[in-house]
Design goal:
Mean pLDDT of chain B: 78
Number of strands of chain A: 10
Radius of gyration of chain B: 19 Å
Mean pLDDT of chain A: 86
Largest sheet of chain A: 7 strands, antiparallel
Structural class of chain A: alpha+beta
Distance between the termini of chain B: 27 Å
Number of helices of chain A: 8
Shape of chain B: globular
Largest interface: A-B, 72 and 93 residues
Helix content of chain B: 55-70%
Oligomer: heterodimer
Shape of chain A: globular
Number of helices of chain B: 9
Strand content of chain A: 15-25%
Strand order of the largest sheet of chain B: 1-2
Order of helices and strands of chain B: HEEHHHHHHHH
Distance between the termini of chain A: 43 Å
Low-confidence stretches of chain B: 1-33
Radius of gyration of chain A: 21 Å
Order of helices and strands of chain A: HHHHHHHEEEEEEEEEEH
């Protein structure tokens, strides 16, 4: 498997490492990192000082003290409260592998785990935008208001021309597409800024599945745009 | 093998495709405030931090209990730091972080850093989500209340890590260290920190990235 050629920005990797991203963005980053050792190494570097900061707050002298049952600063009620909270946790309805099979979304376990609290159930694919193209609202983050949408297209298909009103982040989960920026293949990360207009196409021999984070819906151009307006 | 080491401590999974449900939870030992090792036995204590997480992802209460014993103290200390020492808020946050460990254990990948780094990301993420949820986004204050600095050393603190961290922080320029203490260790967003320091947010992130890469190299040298 070749490594992705297109990566998240350094700023986005920093925000991922420091916990600033919302769930849709975390899912995209988790999916990209599962394909990209270079970005995973960058995230490890950016997290390391945070991890050492946490370690320096440790109330134990060393790992061996911990193994011997060293004391903890955490109040006793914390463990009791955790037991209660975990006992209320719903049993997962299916495994990550089952979810991939049922939804048609080839996501790694790390991305499914991030999605767990806001996943749409069941994931439903709709057509009607253009022949051979389907989309699905996968999740909506209630805090940031950003949505996660999957789009899949067969071979030799053209997405309707559209304009990005807000920033769109995304990743190629399967196959690939091309547009005025270039070719995007498995694991490639993309970011379209507001005002970008394009008409992505799939290749004659391969379709694609992409997952995108949208804060504001895109605006269709041409006759579709006129009808929708 | 990990599986063999844990065989005596964990119950067989009744269904390979589904995680185990938590088993009966151990009782608190009143004198220490931490759970007693009732089910884990000796084997679980020798499992590495990184190897505990796949077990937690499978629903092992024993592995989670051991994780709690190792990390709850520092999670609570960090929660207190972020919550400006309000004990009630710190306890809520620490619970939320540790519950996220239970839920998101499968997201741990050693290629993206060690367990402490992963836990740091979760802790800060949960804190920022707490603030968003309770609409605590605020005017940017003009004092140092939001700086997250290491508290004065106490007996029992892991001094080796502390010394190397302070050494790494000591190499940073004043403005780099301030940015790190507000927006990376601390609880301000990058936008809030940029407003406080009167910087473009892109410049702030670039400053922090450069500082973190410098620190990472020094921390590796002293590890």
């Amino acid at each position: 498997m070749t490594a992705p050629a297109k990566h998240p920005s350094p700023e986005l990797l920093l925000e991922f490492a420091s916990g600033d991203l919302d769930v849709p963005a975390r899912v995209l980053l988790a999916a990209h990192l599962s394909h990209c050792g270079e970005c995973a190494e960058n995230v490890a570097a950016l997290r390391a000082p945070g991890g050492r900061f946490l370690d320096a707050l440790s109330t134990r002298r060393s790992r061996s003290d911990a193994a011997d049952g060293g004391s903890s600063d955490a109040p006793p009620e914390l463990w009791t409260r955790l037991q209660t909270a975990i006992a209320r946790e719903p049993r997962p309805e299916s495994s990550d592998a089952d979810r991939t099979q049922l939804s048609g979304l080839p996501l790694p376990a790390s991305a499914w785990t991030e999605l767990r609290d806001i996943l749409a159930k069941p994931i439903h694919w709709s057509g009607g935008v253009a022949k051979g193209i389907e989309w699905s609202n996968v999740a909506l983050d209630p805090h940031s208001g950003a949505g996660l949408m999957a789009v899949r297209a067969g071979r030799r298909r053209a997405f309707p021309a559209h304009e990005h009103i807000g920033q769109e982040l995304g990743i190629v989960l399967e196959g690939g597409y091309r547009d005025h920026v270039g070719d995007f293949t498995l694991g490639d990360f993309f970011s379209y800024e507001p005002g970008t207009r394009h008409r992505p196409r799939t290749e004659p021999d391969e379709g694609c599945i992409v997952l995108v984070r949208l804060q504001v819906p895109n605006r269709f151009l041409g006759w579709r745009g006129l009808i929708l307006r | 093998m990990l599986a063999a080491a844990l065989a005596a401590a964990t119950a067989p999974n009744p269904s390979p495709s589904l995680p185990r449900l938590p088993r009966a939870w151990p009782k608190i030992v009143p004198s220490t405030g931490i759970p007693s090792t009732v089910f884990g036995g000796a084997a679980i204590q020798h499992v590495s931090d990184a190897d505990l997480l796949p077990e937690i992802a499978l629903g092992s209460a024993d592995a989670f209990q051991e994780f709690y014993r190792r990390f709850a103290g520092r999670v609570y200390s960090y929660a207190r730091l972020l919550s400006a020492s309000e004990a009630g808020r710190a306890e809520d946050l620490a619970q939320d972080v540790l519950l996220a460990v239970w839920r998101r254990a499968a997201s741990f990948d050693a290629a993206r850093g060690d367990v402490s780094g992963w836990l740091y990301t979760i802790a800060r993420n949960r804190f920022l989500d707490h603030r968003r949820r309770i609409a605590r986004a605020r005017e940017v204050p003009a004092d140092d209340a939001d700086l997250a600095r290491l508290p004065a050393p106490e007996a029992g603190v892991d001094t080796g890590t502390r010394v190397s961290l302070e050494k790494a922080l000591g190499t940073l320029r004043v403005e780099q260290r301030e940015a790190i203490e507000l927006a990376y260790f601390g609880g301000l967003t990058y936008e809030e920190t940029a407003a406080r320091l009167e910087l473009p947010v892109g410049t702030l992130k670039s400053r922090i990235r450069t500082a973190l890469m410098t620190m990472r190299g020094l921390l590796e040298e002293t590890a």
